[in-house]
Amino acid sequence: MQVIETLAEGLKREIKVVIPAKDMEARMNERLVEAKDKVRINGFRPGKVPMAHLKKMYGKSIMAELVNEIVRDRPSSILSERGEKSATQPEVAMTEDEAEADKILSAEADFEFTLSYEVIPPIELQSHDSVKVVREIVDVSDDEVTEQIMKVAENARTFETKKGKAADGDRITMDYVGKVDGVAFDGGTDSDAELVLGSNRFIPGFEAQLVGVKAGDEKTITVTFPEDYPAKNLAGKDATFDVTVKDVAGPAALEINDELATKLGLESADRLREVVRSQIESQYGNVTRQKVKRQILDQLDTLYKFDTPSRLVDAEFENIWRQINTDLAQSGKTFEDEDTTEEKAREEYRALAERRVRLGLVLSEIGEKAGVEVSEDEMQRALYAQLQQFPGQEKQILDFFRNTPGASASLRAPIFEEKVVDKLLTEIDVTDKTVSKEELLADDEAETEDKPAKKAAPKKKAAAKADDAVEGEETAEAAPKKKAAPKKKAAEGDAE
What we know:
Largest sheet: 5 strands, antiparallel
Helix content: 40-55%
Oligomer: single chain
Low-confidence stretches: 445-496
Number of helices: 12
CATH class of the domain at 262-464: Mainly Alpha
Mean pLDDT: 85
Structural class: alpha+beta
Shape: elongated
Distance between the termini: 66 Å
CATH topology of the domain at 262-464: Trigger factor, domain 2
Order of helices and strands: EEHHEHEEHEEEEEHHHHHHHEH
Strand content: 15-25%
């Protein structure tokens, strides 16, 4: 077998592989000998079929198998022998001429194919002594824990029927019929609907007109649906709602006690405080982690400069660009709305893709040299987390990871990266700094990886609000969330 380098330009390589026809024929004959005692052909006793007859019947099919095996297996060994790592799966090109292909299968012509690929550049690891980061830490106060618990408690608050007029904070039970141009519309009618005034669950103007009503009152409310209302047949239209108030109930006092803790699935008020504090600390810790990681990556980006494989950059850019266009479509915006142009955005996100690929290669090299490994248990936990995100689709997700080559890499890569960051944190200069939650959560565009300039459609921040605790494992209600309004009810808005 001859291996001839035909192109070595930057990271690009092209290799021509030639296997003489006589070598291919020798391999084919070995397979025919192995098959001689196994095949059953009418007119011949087992093991007595002449080689010429076997070759006539099975020669081309065996040769085709050999060609497929060589194309499948040899590229990796060729690269290994050359001491190279391909950035992506090498592209294989063979003759498309039918006559030439037939000669190869008949062992009348040499088998030739070409490998095209880009090599991963050699990365010389630098000293990381110059890498210095500031780790911002927030001390969670008792008052913040209490404030958070009170927000959580809102979901467990009870109401008691009261006499008199409804005020903000009261819960109204009502029947209503929504109409546009005097005609009831689909989804605009409900019975025994409950609404806490001031919760902003219904479209703007609806709740305010119910302040002051009493049980037994009948009232017609006039509102205008927002222009961006999801139901296009209602967007921007004036509507009336005929409302019958059936009950007005005032909120019961909120107290942080064992009874409240029990309602939230915990055994005591002390345990409730402990869980909520832990969740707030976890939220802040996640933000701190991302800021520290950003500082590390920024400094590694300065330390390491080398050419990156264009195919990897192309693939990363396509992933980013696809997401950007999806975000724009969902938000109904254009690049012009974000004070940029498509050409400028492409340039910026191309640079971001190149940075990501380069830093990915650097982290991979650091991790490999440090012996960082991802355990099977860690992979299983990552898979389980994926399953939890898509209830009801567990089988499809499992089948995807089992049957899709390389799919498991999407689980392994982020775990590996975080473990490399952990390794770096033991080697670099880390200074802890106590800051306020406002300082920690400040929207600093310079620290947002996906904003090379101004992002076309910004993603949700890691911590959108200082008061939103991350949900814990012990109680799903330990994180305050605005109660979702049922989508079916046309009267309810999407202000959330």
